[in-house]
Q: What sequence folds into this?
């Protein structure tokens, strides 16, 4: 209550900044991260400790199995049989050529390599969003490359490449070729089926719906069986297709039905104003679809289409049931070599095959996810 | 009406006329193709001596099937073999669905866990399962794991409860004595009672807002009633454990390695896909929903149970159903590891013996198609009932 002396200035506002304190140790940095993400509660802590213990118990032996304890080179299976606590990579090294080419004649194997290199280059061109003239790349991949691959792999006397019977085909390139046939044929067929399903013409719509629902309702194996056992019956007597043709036709038709549903999703997501605008400009059906609707719809479904390809690539393993020697079937054949028999051969082979498929499929799924983010950014604006 | 329409320069530019024309051409082309194929098929089948009808259905099959849930012998008919295959497919499908669902949900929830290490472990699991072929996984489990296990005399034992060796998995077989019916009846009563209680609790909550402990009451009823009946009826159900006799195991419930590998492979593979569906479904529920729930004072588990999961289920169930259909369709990979399912028995052995490719494939595909269409139909009904009621 005592009045303040009149001539003293009491300032309650701080004139200089107080130096900032360091953040509390427990809310930033490694310790905080560990607390928040590993030991946030009793249950979480218990889970962390249990999983860490499990990892310490299981991972080192697994790594040792794959690296230090593994047999990296050996002329036959004797060394692998002696080292049963490690993988037998020597088996893979020995069989690598068979796994890649099957029984393709050794002198002609450069043709397989050439087809694979051209295909890989075209795929990079097609998938890399910043690449120039991707339309040309797509045209080459979908129109030119299949012909080139067929000529290279199968051979054509007119260009001086000896015929190689499909009986000799096997290994990785058969898997890739099957996937290629599936991709190249299923995309246009799928687009046609999707357009058919959304058509205003009742017969066209009914045919598309019946085909799509039928194929999607049955297992791939039965489609392959049907192609193999029934297709030859429906051909004119005397026509004997190459043994690869029925399963490849089955693969393409099967993939097309799934592709159609993916494309239909893209068509449905498109605003109605797009078709109305195109119609108002006086475009006919095919020009409207080709110039306005499909470019937008297909861009939107790229992630889904790539995911479909992952499924297709995994499904190519099933063609072994009708006698095509794909990569997995080649691996099974390699297992039968008695020179290399031993308890570590099978796990090694399956782990290697698993890595092979995983690298391809995981790369595709990462690509699909990246495209999805990219498209989402583009559409937000 | 016709007078009001603007006159057209040519009939060929009328979209309706053109539509009819195109469709007519398409239908004619398809009909011609089918007719040609059919004629070729008749000629080819006659030339190769392939039966045209379904007479083979009642002929003696002459081959054995090692795993059958319905009576079957080599003297049975092809028709009987079909039913054996269908039942085997259904069993594998049903058991795989029943096991893959909880595993998939658990992995999906683990993916969303705030615990970093748990969510990364779940991520690795999901990526491994989804990015390698199912056939490879089945071959691995069957050839590299189950086939290389020790023989019956050195079986791996899981606490004496289950035995695992290269002839399969041996579980205890329940033995039903006199009075076991009481226990089963008590279990049925408990389930019906639990469902009734849940319905009553739902109605009461809608009317008064009060909630009843449905889970607790159902659990006590389902566990308690059969236990009471079990002791009241003088312990009528026993367990028979597998024991080594000679070179093989006797007693117990033997699960063949083919069945075990197929089920295990299907379950672990599909669980990876279900996990992603669950994760996507939960993440798709807007964040405002859980924020509103915590603003109302609901704690985390109640928020999940009452707000997030009911909304996520609407998004989860359609793709989940298609995963169930995938399980049924993928069970046809049984043919690679020798489990006698519909495709192996019917589209495999029966087709090869009778050569009736068209009939056999038509029947096989019709079965899968019927399952798919029935499930799609049920799903559409479900979706119609559970669609968002928008104003």
A:
């Amino acid at each position: 209550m005592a009045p303040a002396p009149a001539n003293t200035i009491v300032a309650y506002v701080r004139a200089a900044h107080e130096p900032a304190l360091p953040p509390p140790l427990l809310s930033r940095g490694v310790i905080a991260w560990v607390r928040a993400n590993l030991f946030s509660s009793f249950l979480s802590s218990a889970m962390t400790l249990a999983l860490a213990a499990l990892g310490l118990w299981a991972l080192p032996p697994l790594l040792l199995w794959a690296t230090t304890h593994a047999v990296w080179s050996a002329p036959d299976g004797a060394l692998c049989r002696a080292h049963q606590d490690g993988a037998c990579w020597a088996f893979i090294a020995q069989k690598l050529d068979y796994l890649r080419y099957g029984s393709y004649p050794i002198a002609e194997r450069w043709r397989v390599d050439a087809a694979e290199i051209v295909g890989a280059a075209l795929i990079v061109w097609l998938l890399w969003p910043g690449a120039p003239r991707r339309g040309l790349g797509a045209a080459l991949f979908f129109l030119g490359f299949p012909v080139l691959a067929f000529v290279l792999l199968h051979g054509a006397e007119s260009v001086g490449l000896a015929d190689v019977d499909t009986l000799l085909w096997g290994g990785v390139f058969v898997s890739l070729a099957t996937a290629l046939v599936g991709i190249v044929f299923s995309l246009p067929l799928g687009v046609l089926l999707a357009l058919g399903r959304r058509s205003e013409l009742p017969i066209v719509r009914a045919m598309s719906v019946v085909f799509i629902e039928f194929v999607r309702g049955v297992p791939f194996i039965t489609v392959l069986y049907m192609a193999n056992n029934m297709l030859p019956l429906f051909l004119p007597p005397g026509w004997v297709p190459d043994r690869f043709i029925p399963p490849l036709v089955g693969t393409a038709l099967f993939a097309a039905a799934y592709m159609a549903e993916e494309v239909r999703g893209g068509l449905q997501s498109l605003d109605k104003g797009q078709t109305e605008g195109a119609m108002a400009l006086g475009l006919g059906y095919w020009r409207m679809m080709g110039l306005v609707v499909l470019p937008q719809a297909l861009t939107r479904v790229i992630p889904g289409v790539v995911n479909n390809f992952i499924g297709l690539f995994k499904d190519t393993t099933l063609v072994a049931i009708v006698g095509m020697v794909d990569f997995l079937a080649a691996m099974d054949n390699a297992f039968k070599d008695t020179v290399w028999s031993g308890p570590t051969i099978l796990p090694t082979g399956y782990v290697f095959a698993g890595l092979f498929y995983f690298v391809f499929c995981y790369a595709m799924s990462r690509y699909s996810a990246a495209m999805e983010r990219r498209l989402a950014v583009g559409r937000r604006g | 009406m016709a007078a009001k329409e603007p006159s057209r320069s040519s009939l060929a530019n009328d979209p309706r006329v053109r539509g009819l024309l195109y469709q007519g051409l398409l239908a004619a082309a398809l009909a011609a193709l089918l007719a040609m194929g059919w004629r070729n098929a008749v000629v080819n089948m006659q030339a190769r001596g392939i039966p045209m009808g379904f007479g083979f259905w009642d002929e003696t099959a002459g081959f054995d099937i090692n795993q059958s849930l319905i009576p079957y012998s080599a003297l049975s008919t092809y028709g009987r073999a079909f039913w054996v295959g269908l039942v085997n497919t259904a069993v594998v499908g049903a058991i795989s669905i029943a096991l893959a669902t909880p595993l998939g949900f658990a992995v999906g929830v683990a993916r969303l866990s705030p615990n970093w290490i748990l969510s990364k472990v779940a991520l690795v699991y999901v990526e491994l399962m989804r990015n390698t072929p199912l056939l490879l996984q089945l071959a691995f489990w069957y050839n590299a794991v189950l086939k290389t296990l020790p023989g019956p005399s050195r079986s791996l034992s899981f606490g004496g409860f289950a035995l695992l060796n290269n002839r399969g998995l041996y579980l205890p077989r329940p033995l039903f004595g006199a009075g076991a019916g009481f226990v089963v009846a008590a279990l049925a009563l408990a389930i019906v009672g639990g469902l009734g209680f849940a319905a009553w609790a739902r109605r009461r909550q809608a009317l008064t807002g009060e909630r009843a402990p449905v889970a607790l009451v159902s659990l006590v009823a389902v566990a308690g009633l059969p236990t009471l009946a079990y002791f009241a009826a003088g312990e009528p159900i026993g367990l028979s454990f597998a024991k080594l006799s000679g070179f093989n195991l006797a007693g117990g419930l033997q699960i063949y390695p083919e069945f075990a590998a197929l089920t295990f492979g299907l379950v672990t593979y599909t669980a990876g896909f279900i996990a992603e569906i669950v994760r996507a479904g939960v993440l798709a529920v807007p964040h405002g929903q859980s924020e509103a729930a915590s603003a109302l004072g609901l704690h985390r588990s109640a928020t999940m149970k009452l707000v997030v999961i009911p909304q996520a289920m609407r998004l989860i169930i359609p793709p989940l159903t298609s995963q169930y259909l995938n399980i049924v369709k993928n069970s046809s990979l049984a043919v690679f590891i020798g489990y006698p399912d519909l495709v192996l028995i019917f589209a495999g052995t029966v087709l090869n013996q009778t050569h009736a490719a068209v009939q056999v494939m038509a029947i096989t595909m019709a079965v899968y198609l019927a399952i798919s269409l029935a499930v799609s139909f049920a799903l559409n009904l479900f979706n119609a009932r559970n669609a968002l009621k928008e104003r």
